[in-house]
């Protein structure tokens, strides 16, 4: 769950208001005390917390809430709106150059996820039809160039490098010429990072900025570092004038402090959020969706977008036909499992469903391993067995269990479930036919 501790505490504090028919000022005061503590414990900047609580209180003690029939819901609505405003209100899109190439300069401290994010951003833009070029400007860290080349290979995006003997400013300048010649419309410059902010680093970044005049200067910060990420953002912004922030490692146990304070402190938007090490785990940052997720109100829009990006429409139509005609086989099942996996870990998907709060999510105890076992069992079947499971006798079951590293019981369970699903589909299809005959369906 994103910001698990914070989410749980906020949902607890606000949950107490939910069922009440009438709210007293004292009820609101008490709830706000808990909200304040939850935010401070999540490492949100104290000035930001103070301002936030004051605004929410002012609105919550007003007439619109006190006289409403569902005052608790109204307070939750206000908290949701103010959290959204705190994180920037609306998504902030990338600025593209009127005449390509668009130049994006990536900066940040070492280990924040700059190189990985450069690759992810390239992959995201490529999916949208752009032709990005990655540029290796970190000439100091051993193997930094090689790392970017490996990233480039994985996301199938060209990498521009002229080794570590040239200055980063020269490399950046040359990369633009190279990009123009080769039809690259977005140039993503991966700059060097340091363990701490220092004058040399800032001067070098400034020099690159002055030379290539980037359309975007994105600062990559590790969300797990909380207030440190906010301080780093302030320094980079003061010295360099960043255009936006990318928050990484939101899949880890970040407490929320960075996400909730950066915008308010620096007045620069969070443009993207990274939720894992894989190259497709970078999302546009939507403040409203993030606020809803924190308050356990789900994020259906992101869920739908993920589904649309991962599921193949043609395959879905074919599958529907097969389901109707009961021709669904283990081959199709495997295909479905693999498409589902493309959407990301089950726990990340579940938290986007409205009404599943942090406590329930914990209790659900999503067993990703079970899916892995099911996949292994199907993969240990022969093609014939997948299409016609009735041939799977005792000795075949033994072989499949052994081949997949599972037990005969698990194989039996899967086969039984599969047969029951088929029976159920048959029933449904029968029902549909009768209804159609009676003319109750179009
Ligand atoms: P750089 O020094 O800023 O270029 O950082 P790298 O791109 O080398 O990333 C440092 C480490 O963080 C690597 O092990 C990455 O795989 C990891 N990393 C980057 N982004 C994420 C993320 O969103 N989630 C997780 N869990 N790990 C990440």
From TrEMBL:
Sorted UniProt keywords: Cytoplasm, GTP-binding, Hydrolase, Nucleotide-binding, Ribonucleoprotein, RNA-binding, Signal recognition particle
Catalytic activity: GTP + H2O = GDP + phosphate + H(+)
GO terms for biological process, alphabetical: SRP-dependent cotranslational protein targeting to membrane
SMART domains: AAA (SM00382), SRP54 (SM00962), SRP54_N (SM00963)
CDD domains: SRP_G
Keyword check for GTP-binding: yes
One Gene Ontology term, aspect cellular component: signal recognition particle
Signal peptide segment: none
Gene Ontology molecular functions: 7S RNA binding; GTP binding; GTPase activity
Pfam family name, one: SRP_SPB
The enzyme's E.C. designation: 3.6.5.4
Entry's localization field: Cytoplasm
Boundaries of every AAA+ ATPase domain copy: 100-301
Keyword Hydrolase: yes
Major localization listed first in the record, in broad terms: cytoplasm
SRP54-type proteins GTP-binding domain location: 101-296
Residues that coordinate or bind GTP: 108-115, 190-194, 248-251
Residue ranges constituting the Signal recognition particle SRP54 helical bundle domain according to the UniProt record: 2-87
Function of the molecule: Involved in targeting and insertion of nascent membrane proteins into the cytoplasmic membrane. Binds to the hydrophobic signal sequence of the ribosome-nascent chain (RNC) as it emerges from the ribosomes. The SRP-RNC complex is then targeted to the cytoplasmic membrane where it interacts with the SRP receptor FtsY.
HAMAP family: SRP54 (MF_00306)
Domain notes: Composed of three domains: the N-terminal N domain, which is responsible for interactions with the ribosome, the central G domain, which binds GTP, and the C-terminal M domain, which binds the RNA and the signal sequence of the RNC.
Quaternary structure (record): Part of the signal recognition particle protein translocation system, which is composed of SRP and FtsY.
Family: Belongs to the GTP-binding SRP family. SRP54 subfamily.
Protein name per Swiss-Prot or TrEMBL: Signal recognition particle protein
């Amino acid at each position: 769950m994103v910001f698990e501790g914070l989410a749980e505490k906020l949902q607890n504090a606000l949950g107490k208001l939910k069922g009440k028919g009438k709210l007293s000022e004292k009820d609101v005061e008490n709830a706000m005390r808990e909200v304040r503590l939850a935010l401070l414990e999540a490492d949100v900047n104290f000035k930001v917390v103070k301002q936030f609580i004051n605004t929410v209180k002012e609105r919550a003690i007003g007439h619109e809430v006190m006289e409403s029939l569902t005052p608790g819901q109204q307070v939750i609505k206000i908290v949701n709106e103010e959290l959204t405003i705190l994180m920037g209100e609306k998504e902030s899109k990338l600025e593209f150059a009127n005449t390509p190439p668009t130049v994006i300069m990536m900066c940040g401290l070492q280990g924040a996820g700059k190189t990985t994010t450069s690759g992810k951003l390239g992959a995201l833009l490529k999916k949208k039809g752009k032709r990005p070029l990655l540029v290796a400007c970190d000439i100091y860290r051993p193997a930094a160039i090689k790392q970017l080349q490996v990233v480039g290979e994985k996301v199938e995006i060209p990498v521009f490098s002229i080794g570590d003997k040239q200055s980063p400013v020269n490399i950046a300048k040359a990369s633009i010429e190279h990009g123009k010649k080769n039809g690259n419309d977005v140039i993503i410059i991966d700059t060097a990072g340091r363990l701490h902010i220092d004058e040399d680093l800032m001067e070098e970044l400034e020099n690159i900025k002055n030379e290539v005049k980037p359309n975007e200067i994105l600062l990559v910060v590790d969300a797990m570092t909380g207030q440190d990420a906010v301080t780093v953002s302030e320094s980079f912004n003061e010295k360099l004038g960043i255009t936006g922030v990318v928050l990484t490692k939101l899949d880890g146990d970040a407490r929320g402090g960075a996400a909730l304070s950066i915008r308010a402190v620096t007045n620069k938007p969070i443009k993207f959020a990274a939720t894992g090490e894989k190259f497709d785990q970078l999302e546009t940052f939507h403040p409203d969706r993030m606020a809803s997720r924190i308050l356990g109100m789900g994020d259906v829009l992101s869920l739908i977008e993920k589904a649309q990006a991962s599921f193949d429409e043609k395959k879905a139509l074919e599958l529907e036909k097969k389901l109707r005609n009961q021709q669904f086989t283990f081959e199709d099942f495997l295909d479905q499992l693999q498409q589902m996996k493309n959407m990301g870990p089950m726990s990340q998907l579940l938290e986007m469903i409205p009404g599943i709060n942090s406590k329930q999510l914990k209790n659900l105890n999503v067993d990703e391993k079970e899916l892995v076992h099911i996949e292994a069992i199907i993969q240990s079947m022969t093609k014939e067995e997948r299409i016609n499971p009735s041939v799977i006798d005792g000795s075949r079951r033994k072989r499949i269990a052994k081949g997949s590293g599972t037990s005969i019981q698990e194989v039996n369970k899967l086969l039984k479930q599969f047969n029951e699903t088929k029976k159920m589909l048959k029933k449904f299809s029968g029902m549909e036919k009768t209804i159609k005959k009676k003319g109750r369906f179009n």
